[in-house]
Amino acid sequence: QTFVYGDLYRYDVEKNEWKLVSSPNSPPPRSAHQTVAWKNNVYMFGGEFTSPNQERFHHYKDFWTLDLKTNQWEQILAKGCPSARSGHRMVLYKHKIVLFGGFYDTLREVRYYNDLHVFDLDNFKWEEIKPRPGCLWPSPRSGFQLVVYQDQIYMYGGYFKEVSSDKNASEKGTVHADMWSLDPRTWEWNKVKKTGMPPGPRAGFSMCVHKKRAVLFGGVVDMEVE
Asked: Cα dihedral sign for 67, 71, 74, 80?
C-alpha cells in the first residue's frame, strides 16, 4: 500500500528537536512537490498524490504559502501559474521563485516539461519565460537539480521518458548528464562544459551550495541489460 503524507514538521536546530505542527487549512497530501522559503513564508507548488491501492493518481497545480509565524496555510490564486506537475524544481533568486521542468502523468498520457516560470514575490504574479528563436534551451526532464550561486542558476541531470504512440512499443527512458547555467537577469540558458571528474547520468540526486562550491550526492540510473 502507498500512503501519501500531508503533515507538517518543524525541526529546531538549537534544541535538536522535531515537532509536529498542526496547521489550519493545510494543502491536500502530496509528494514530489517543491518549496522555497522567503522572509517569513514558505511557498509550495505542485506535486502528486497516489491512492493507497495505486488506482488513483493525481497531479497538483496549486500554489500555497505557509506563514511561519502563525503556521497557517493559504492558497495563492494567481493567474498564469504553471500546469499540473511533479518532479519539477524550484529555487529562489532574489525576490523571484524560478520553476523549471517536471512531468505530468494521467496514466493515459505522460508529458515531460522544459518550460520556465517565474513568480515575482513583490507583485505576486506568474510569468512564463519563452525561449527566444535560435537560443539554447534544455530538453524536457524531471528529477534534476537546480542550485543558485550569485547571479547564476545551475542545472544538472534529470530523467525523461519517451512515450511511443504504438501501444506495443516499449517506453524508452533517458537519464541526463548535461549541465546548464541560467542567467536570471536575461533568462538565457548556456550549456556548461564539464571538466575534471563530473558525475555520470543520474536523476533523483540532491545538490546544494556551500560557499563557492555545489555539493552533489547520490541519485539513480536504470541500466538496460541485454
From this structure: positive
